């Protein structure tokens, strides 16, 4: 039975649902610190296989290095903010939950909408790169690409639906295997590199320099800043860990450990791949700046085409790892907003016996796949590759940047307005880390909007935000439900008001 219980000063209407509502939306606890580490690293690791390299075309190797350093600083600030907030607010809502507690229902909804764009589009970009690798390995026609995408979604949405135990086992296994493949690449690349001749083979204006030894910043400092959206791909989605809070055995202890171990692992891997992949003899920064499968190009140069295909088949586990884990996050993110009434509530129903948010995962997958297929059919195989591999990537990054700004603002406001809130872990960087996140994220967005190639996609995301805000203003704010995130936020607000 449903009864209305609250109407706050912002005309936000809540209703209290009975136990049966939440029984149909139950989750199962399973994850420990290493499962969480694998969830964070596994979600990101595909960015070390494909995607980051497109930034070489914007800023050259030196520009990409500067961009990566700046983005690494941003993610350090962000992850330590999350390491403090997630055990203090251990709910599946993650970014939405942080913003809901600090900025009210409107802040929670807008933050959730930003994160939703990231988690719907990121798997689409990753499965595109999976298709690129498989096309190279099996030498299928470009027109066959959508088949790879559909098969990828069916297989990994299915694995995530089977159960959280299997999902985390697969996540840990493929993450370890993905890192092992990177280790093989690093050690095999070291004897086969010529940094000056190949990593510095981009001249001023982005032209190819035969023989290399080009400038450190061929496109200047502006090129370095323009490469920032692509450097994000080396770390994008580490912030998804708190989405597993209600499936973690001890989130107050394990969340900080998992996310800090994860970001340290990713920073080491990011700088290794940035140095070695463009430096391999026969590859080079210029070619990688236009490649859909840079790691495969590196393997080909080292081992030859025949052996490289075998290694690339193994290397694809990096993409699979990220695809699998972000499907997990996508489901939980949609589930949490739906359970609280921000999205239609049918999306939060979980599987009767397996307790996984199967409806949310299927719905998110269908939206991502539909966007890809519309691009493919409307633009053709050649042009759609640029849109999906580049434009959708930037759209996902734009959604992520907006989410990061909101999470950093949430951190600052929670420290200011709720100083007595129990915090099992406190960020050593404090508000300085949050401000660094905000500044670098704003700069990244600015350079996304400065790039005419990707501006249409970013504007498209902004339009989607506008549609969502209109929906919430007219309908959603009248249908909110006192889910765990909402109960927590309302209770803390009432305590603060009465203090």
Number of helices: 18
Strand order of the largest sheet: 1-2-3
Report the biggest beta sheet as strand number plus sense, adding barrel if it closes.
3 strands, mixed
> Segments where pLDDT lies below 50 for 5+ residues?
1-5
Strand content: under 5%
Fraction of residues in helix: 55-70%
How many structural domains are formed by the residues? Answer: 1
The CATH architecture term is Up-down Bundle
Provide the CATH topology. Answer: Amino acid/polyamine transporter I
Structural class: mainly alpha
Order of helices and strands: EEHHHHHHHHHHHHHHHHHEH
Corresponding CATH superfamily? Amino acid/polyamine transporter I
Shape: globular
In the CATH scheme, the class would be Mainly Alpha
Q: How many beta-strand runs?
A: 3
Average pLDDT value? 88
Report how far apart the termini are. Answer: 34 Å
Rg computed from alpha carbons, rounded to a whole number of angstroms: 22 Å
Q: What does this molecule look like?
A:
- It is a single chain.
- The chain has 499 residues and is mainly α.
- The protein has a single domain, classed as Amino acid/polyamine transporter I (Up-down Bundle).
- It has 18 helices and 3 strands.
- It has a 3-stranded mixed β-sheet, with no helix packed on it.
- Strand 1 and strand 2 (13-16) form a beta hairpin.
- It is globular and about 70 Å long.
- The two termini are 34 Å apart.
- The model is unreliable at 1-5 (pLDDT under 50).
